[in-house]
Specification:
By secondary structure, the protein is α+β, with helices and mostly antiparallel strands. It folds into two domains: about 80 residues, Lrp/AsnC effector binding domain/regulation of amino acid metabolism (RAM) domain (Alpha-Beta Plaits, 2-Layer Sandwich), CATH 3.30.70; about 100 residues, Alpha-Beta Plaits. Helices cover about 25% and strands about 40% of the residues. The protein contains four helices and nine strands. Strands 1, 2, 3, 4, 5, 6, 7, 8 and 9 form a nine-stranded antiparallel beta sheet that branches. Strand 7 and strand 8 form a beta hairpin. The radius of gyration is 16 Å and the shape is globular.
Length: about 190
């Protein structure tokens, strides 16, 4: 299997916990050893601080392969997760900016709930409010899951660079009902 940064079917796993006797940290380290940010199926894995314990970005050729990857790489390691499947990725000036396609040192992963029917409009507004894309605003995607949009902010400089925009700029975006943020650091 070989998918690319924007090819294939992408999903995000929010690790909620693990089977008794399984340490989430050990499982994430094993997933990181399998990371291939270009070809997958594990594009990114990290522990996080926030409402869930870890985060994994997966990609596969299609849904059957994605289900197999989740079963073989997450469930077989005893991990319990909530999943979201990526649908529409933020685009600007002919370029595509999806979450976790690059890995700055400090990352904020923000799950965004929108007003009903507003997800596409909110996706467009995020870049306007948080941009320019590729700098602090790393990417965003509309997803199928318990929330509507996954947003990534990132900086190699400091945690405050990704925290401040969440509080100062994100909450002012029209159409957002609520957000939930987790932070990760990977040097």
């Amino acid at each position: 299997m070989a998918v690319g940064r924007y090819e294939g079917l992408h999903a995000f796993a929010f690790i909620l916990g693990a089977e008794p006797g399984t340490r989430v940290r050990d499982a994430v380290e094993a997933l990181r050893a399998e990371e291939d940010p270009v070809r997958g199926p594990i594009l990114f894995a990290s522990e996080v601080v926030g409402p869930y314990e870890a985060f994994v970005h997966l990609a596969a050729d299609g849904l059957p392969e994605l289900q197999g990857t989740i079963a073989e790489r997450l469930w077989a390691r005893g991990l319990h997760a909530e999943h979201a499947v990526e649908w529409r990725v933020y685009e600007a000036a002919g370029a595509t900016f999806g979450p976790k396609r690059g890995s700055p040192g400090f990352t904020a992963l923000v799950r965004v709930w929108t007003e009903p029917g507003e997800a596409l409009e909110v996706l467009g507004r995020l870049g306007d409010r948080l941009g320019p894309p590729g700098e602090l605003f790393k990417g965003a995607s509309i997803v199928f899951g318990s929330f509507d949009i996954l947003l990534e902010l990132g900086s190699d400089e400091s945690l405050s660079e990704v925290m401040d925009p969440v509080l100062e700029r994100l909450h002012g975006v029209e159409g957002i009902r609520r957000t939930e943020t987790s932070f990760a650091y990977r040097p």
